[in-house]
Design brief:
By secondary structure, the chain is mainly alpha-helical. 65% of the residues lie in helices and 6% in strands.
Length: 530
């Protein structure tokens, strides 16, 4: 009887263990299957999906004895990794973030010019001598800054501003010396620290552009037409120097500075007394403006790709002997470059191998392979961007990102490509102002010949060049209208609706006023204040 009772208890215990084992096996299979399906759905790193697949196969297919051995082995591996992670990091030699120096050197060599030909050193000297603080306590501090920027003015109206401009005569001389040089090459901004310096430089270029605009208006107010013409030359050449950088941040700033030149040119044409030589020089400038943005865009794209590669290089480390490994200090390297100031940075400093372990699962183990992936993805995005409908196709792709390193690279490539479309709009605006300046020259000549403004642009069609009445912003013709003050010249904007020259985002109007020039320059000034 006792033996029967003991057997019954033993049988119940075995059945309970078998039930527990079966339940645990079902739960583990369900969890691992869910993890694997989720990983496949979001296209997680393949190593994560592979480990989930192996664990799931062991749970579903292995007999219990083999599974027990497998579980013991897994526990041993996990324990070994945990011990490795918490063991003090005794690195031999000095390890630093990896850098794609060969790619950067190749790009720099392709755009290199001699030191004697390069205006970059002169700009650097100017920016070192006159920084943002100089602007803030000087011309920009004036309550009348908006007036000085948008109309001609006399020395008697704003004596303090005139004195500030006179005190900076040496700076204007330095700008002239720099812009007398045909070529300018700043170093490529391939790291975040270099990009911060680039942002500072481009902002200073814009500041000087606005100062030159004020100086042009001062010269026109005092009848110093030759001095105004010289400053317009400087504005134009500053913009050309910025285009020569073939870098993402320089191009929009160059477009802004060139638009300042067009505004100043229009004011000189309509309110000054330019000589025939000046008019001829302006026409040569205007007819020489390139109609397309695409010529330089491939190089811009290549240079932006270098920045992404250098960011990716922070995920690897190299020592004095040239050995490369996954970074154990990637968080610290990112904090140094991007100034993140994260609390986790201080914690990661004490567990560097955790970073390497995470990277082992997430990215290729060699930087060269990651660099090839970046090349391939950027090339595909550039090709698609160049085709009709490419923007929408790329937008759909980015809307379904992969949750792995390739997905992050695709987002970076999309971010770069996405600059093209607003830049194309700004380029169209540039061409509209170019055409408008040519139209203003025709209008001034018509007024000089007949003593009045024409009733319509068509009256000058016989002397107009091909296509100068075209408005690239809207794809239609520039709008011209006589009024009591003379005339209005404007673009009807991207919406294609004639809104009498009004352009205000608050009420949805988007016309672009060209003349009178007061309204046409305000957007450039307001951008500086944002």
């Amino acid at each position: 009887m006792i033996e029967k009772t003991a057997g019954t208890r033993r049988g119940r215990m075995i059945r309970a263990l078998e039930f527990t084992y079966a339940a645990e096996r079902c739960i583990a299979a369900a969890v691992l299957a869910a993890v694997l399906m989720a990983g496949l759905f979001v296209r997680a790193p393949w190593r994560v999906n592979a480990i989930a697949s192996v664990l799931l196969a062991n749970v579903v297919l292995s007999p219990w004895k083999l599974r027990l051995l497998f579980d013991i082995a897994v526990i041993g591996v996990v324990a070994g990794v945990a011990i490795w992670v918490v063991t003090p990091n005794n690195d031999v030699g000095f390890w630093r973030p990896h850098s794609f120096d060969v790619d950067v050197a190749r790009a720099e060599a392709a755009r290199a010019i001699t030191k004697e030909e390069n205006a970059a050193a002169l700009y650097a000297e100017l920016f070192s001598a006159y920084d943002f603080e100089d602007f803030e306590i000087g011309l920009y501090a004036s309550d009348a800054y908006g007036d000085m920027l948008t109309r001609r003015w006399t020395d008697a109206e704003f004596p303090e501003a005139r004195a500030w401009l006179a005190d900076h005569a040496e700076a204007f001389a330095m700008l002239k010396e720099a812009t007398d040089m045909a070529q300018c090459r700043f170093s490529l901004a391939t790291t975040q620290l270099e990009r911060n310096a680039q942002m500072l430089r481009t902002n200073l270029m814009k500041r000087w552009g606005l100062v030159l605009t004020c100086a042009v208006n001062s010269d026109l107010g005092e009848g110093r037409n030759a001095a105004a013409m010289e400053k317009i030359r400087i504005l134009r050449r500053m913009a050309q120097h910025m285009y020569q950088q073939q870098m993402l941040l320089d191009m929009p700033r160059g477009l802004e500075v060139e638009r300042m030149a067009y505004n100043a040119m229009g004011r000189l044409i309509m309110e000054g007394e330019p000589t025939q030589e000046d008019i001829g020089e302006m026409e040569r400038w205007l007819w020489g403006v390139e109609d397309s943005l695409e010529a330089d865009w491939r190089q811009v794209f290549e240079h932006e790709k270098l920045y992404i590669k250098q960011v990716a290089g922070l995920l690897y480390e190299v020592n004095e002997g040239g050995s490369v490994r996954l970074s154990r200090h990637a968080v610290l390297a990112f904090d140094h470059q991007f100034r993140m100031g994260l609390h986790i940075v201080r914690r990661m400093e004490h567990a560097p191998r955790v970073t390497a372990l995470v990277l082992w699962f997430a990215i290729p183990h060699r930087p060269e392979r990651l660099g090839r992936v970046i090349d391939r993805i950027f090339a595909r995005y550039f090709d698609e961007m160049s085709h009709p409908g490419g923007e929408e196709a790329l937008r759909r792709r980015v809307g379904d990102p992969e949750l792995n390193y390739k997905g992050i690279i695709e987002l970076a490539a999309w971010r770069t490509v996405n600059w093209v479309y607003p830049l194309r709009q700004q380029w169209a605006k540039r061409l509209t102002f170019r055409n408008a300046a040519l139209v203003l020259i025709l209008l001034k000549r018509h007024h000089a010949a007949y003593g009045d403004w024409p009733e319509a642009l068509e009256e000058m069609a016989d002397v107009a060049g091909s296509g100068i009445f075209l408005d690239p912003i809207s794809g239609e013709r520039l709008r011209y209208r006589r009024n009591s003050e003379g005339f209005m010249l404007y673009s009807i904007g991207r919406n294609g609706i004639d809104e009498d020259g009004r352009g205000n985002p608050r009420d949805g109007t988007d016309d672009v006023m060209i003349w009178p020039a007061r309204a046409s320059i305000l957007d450039a000034a307001l951008l500086d204040g944002q």
